[in-house]
Structure formats: structure tokens, C-alpha cells
Amino acid sequence: MTVRPTETIQNAAMRLRLKSVGALIVSNDGITLDGLITERAISDGVAVHGSGIGSLHVSDLMVTGVLTCTPNDSIADAARLMTDRRLRHLPVMDGGRLVGIVSVGDILKYRLDEVMLEAHVLQDVALAQR
């Protein structure tokens, strides 16, 4: 999900709410990455700008210099980067082209599925040894 830098914060906040996500990728063309607009950036913006925040542009509050990963990076590498840098969202870029975004929730779901599979395998091994 992307949003243009010229859209208002009010529109971006409505999209975050409707889609139940914590961040939108900011992009003029849906291909390149200009930044991220996050719930945290909007919250910080309310503290600074008060009730006039809704009419600001996304570009006024977006996070720039966003760290990214590639489709070839492992889940462990993405999780490590997100943990070390305290990131909740990590855009996925492939040769300068935006191809997706990974969230902390995505990483957690993947790891939970992995742990559950391991538990089932161990349980099957234990039952087979009886």
C-alpha cells in the first residue's frame, strides 16, 4: 500500500485505519521509495502541530532514509535488522523497485509457524520411539 507525498495526513491516517496497518509506503509512482508514513510519525506530528496536522502533507511528516531489504535476504537477517534498529516495517526492494513490505507481525507469524512445525516434528519423533 502506497501513498503519494502530496496527500494530506488526514487521508493517510484514514487509509491506515481502514487497512488496519501501521505504515504506508510513500511513493510518487508506486515503484520507488520516497519514505514511510507511520502511526508514530503521525503521533509525533500531533504533538508538534496540534489540531492542524490533518491538512499537512505526507511529505511533511514522512520518515526518510528508510532501511530496506531485498527478496534474497533471509527472514533471520530481516528480523535482526528490525530488532537492532527498532523498526516495525521494512520495505522490500528489488533492483530499485518496490516489491513489498515486511512487518514485525509478518516475522512473528513466520517464526510461530516455524516453531509449531518443529514442535509437531519432535512430537512425532517421540511417539515413533515408543
From TrEMBL:
CBS domain mapped to chain residues: 62-118
InterPro entries: CBS_dom, CBS_dom_sf, Diverse_CBS-Domain
Domain of life: Bacteria
Pfam families xref list: CBS
Keyword check for Cell membrane: no
This protein's UniProt keywords: CBS domain
Protein name per the record: Signal transduction protein
Source species of the chain: Hyphomicrobium denitrificans 1NES1
